[in-house]
Amino acid sequence: MTWRRESSRQCSSSSTPTRRRPRPGEGELTESVEMAQHLLVAADRYGLERLKLMCEDTLIGRIDTANVAATLTLAEQHGCRGLKNACLSFLTGAPGNLQAVMASDDYKHLAVSCPSLHEAIASDLSAVLSGSHVLRIEGYTKTTELLSNGEGLASVAFAVGGRRWCLEYYPDGDDPENAGWVSLILRLHRTDAAVDVRASFEISLLGLDGNPVPSSNLASGSTCELSGGEGWGGGLVETEVLKLEGSGYLKDDAFSIRCDITVVK
């Protein structure tokens, strides 16, 4: 299946696709970030890809100026592309972020331990902003019972490239053409719907090992312009394939999707 432009439609908002815990206190937040960082290192060392993906997703949701340099260093050293892109997006997503981080000891350590990455931050980030978001769909069977073709759920908003986005999940396709498929549609969040954005997109089904499934992928191919209530997406994977025993996609009635976005200024 290929990307196509989607017109605006109503889609109910629900926490079912993505669960988000209440934000803890500042001290608890620091401890949770440090724990996730240590677990990520251990998971990479022992080849625990599922745990590594969970740690990566946790850290993506807790990036701030105090931890982004250390997190970015870990992402570079342990091959976490989604986490790396999220850190780079944060550094350029708001005025002053990069300047605030550059003064920290963690950034100085990054410059020494990852010189090529430091050079990229200094020279390239002014033109292109990239980031990733992992969406975990839980209670898949229930969603297929409650939602028919054309009915979907919207994820919580997430930030990439200085803009807010959301993913819409349709368990039986977003339109009659995609009936029998799981569809994903990417849109600008309503808070950014008034702006025009030039970007390229890729949505991938993740296997249980945390890696993208090559046969279940949607890609814009080239830079596109997205505005208003327009969306991009389509059928990602056939429902029968997703549910097939031994497929390696569905476990405990849940599966994960990764969305990679590159915004061009």
Automatic annotation (TrEMBL):
Pfam families: BACK_BPM_SPOP, MATH_2. Residues 130-261 form the MATH domain. Belongs to the Tdpoz family. It comes from the Eukaryota. InterPro entries: BACK_BPM_SPOP (IPR056423), BPM1-6 (IPR045005), MATH/TRAF_dom (IPR002083), SKP1/BTB/POZ_sf (IPR011333), TRAF-like (IPR008974). One of its GO terms (biological process) is protein ubiquitination. This is MATH domain-containing protein. Pathway: Protein modification; protein ubiquitination. It comes from Brachypodium distachyon (Purple false brome). Residues 1-27 are annotated as: Disordered.
